[in-house]
Design brief:
- By secondary structure, the protein is mainly α.
- It is built from 15 helices and no strands.
- The longest helix is centred in the last third of the chain and has 30 residues.
- The radius of gyration is 18 Å and the shape is globular.
- The model has no long low-confidence stretch (mean pLDDT 88).
């Protein structure tokens, strides 16, 4: 497999998701007195920039081939991964990940545990025997899980201590909503391939309502930390849910293409808010 194809497989437009939650975790850890060398921060920043995303989306494309070949998103917006390349993908994932696992034995124990949870959620989201993405509600939970434990990893990598329960709860609400909304444009393709998702179980409109509720709940949980700014950041999502509620298939897909941009902008804003608290 050519290098550029491998890069495309890792979905560069989504790189900011894992890297962003990692950076948030690091800044949160530093803001409560954590301290770690720049080497470790930069080292694992690279991991969550590329190898982590190659794992998530590479495994996803291997086990989703039968679904993807029926999905119009894979005929232009994304690549269809042919079965002849699946073995190469496994090899590339292993080679790009092994160093970060080995170094994990030298970082704080809670950070290493979070890293193992990341691999668990990222791999079994798509892979059997769990294959969470084909199990309604587990699909959103596992997808959210690998994003949230990335933030937890960054927090504990700094050597910080203390409870992260509220942050994890808010992060799970936010990330579950992110996944559930992303599943809505795939309803028809997933139905045709026999896969059941949270969006299929609840239906388009109820899924969108749930997403709006979870964004609001996440904002309320972290209000004491971010103040009213968090509600301003939730507004684009509320508007997106409102526009999507009665949208037809074509309009819904167009709206979906704005979703990564909104996530990137909001994530960057949250990062700088936490960073200023850490300085």
């Amino acid at each position: 497999m050519k290098f550029l194809r491998t890069i495309r497989l890792s979905r560069p437009r989504f790189w900011i998701y894992e890297l962003g939650t990692y950076a948030l975790g690091v800044c949160a850890g530093l803001s409560v007195g954590g301290n770690i060398s720049f080497f470790y921060i930069a080292f694992y920043a690279f991991f969550f920039l590329f190898p982590a995303n190659l794992l998530i989306y590479g495994i996803n494309d291997v086990f989703d081939y039968e679904t993807d070949r029926l999905n119009p998103k894979k005929t232009g917006y994304e690549d269809l991964l042919e079965p002849s390349l699946h073995g190469v993908v496994y090899r590339n994932i292993f080679l790009s990940s092994i160093t970060f696992i080995v170094v994990g034995f030298f970082i704080p124990i809670y950070a290493f545990i979070a890293l193992l949870f990341f691999y668990f959620f990222a791999f079994f989201y798509s892979a059997p025997p769990i294959r969470a993405k084909a199990r309604p509600f587990f699909d959103s939970f596992f997808s959210a899980g690998h994003y949230v434990v990335t933030g937890v990893f960054g927090y504990y990598l700094t050597g910080a201590s203390g409870s992260v329960v509220l942050g994890v709860f808010a992060g799970m609400c936010w990330a579950i909503a992110m996944h559930a909304y992303s599943a809505v444009p795939d309803i028809d393709a997933d139905k045709e391939s026999g896969i059941r998702t949270i969006a299929i179980s609840l239906g388009k409109k109820l899924t969108i309502v749930l997403c709006g509720f979870l964004y609001a709940l996440a904002s309320l949980v972290v209000y004491t930390y971010f103040s009213y700014i968090v509600f301003i950041l939730a507004l684009p999502y509320v508007l997106l849910m409102f526009l999507s509620y009665n949208a037809d298939e074509q309009k819904l897909f167009r709206l979906y293409t704005y979703f990564p941009k909104i996530n990137s902008l909001v994530g960057m804003t949250l990062f700088f808010l936490v960073l200023f608290r850490a300085l």
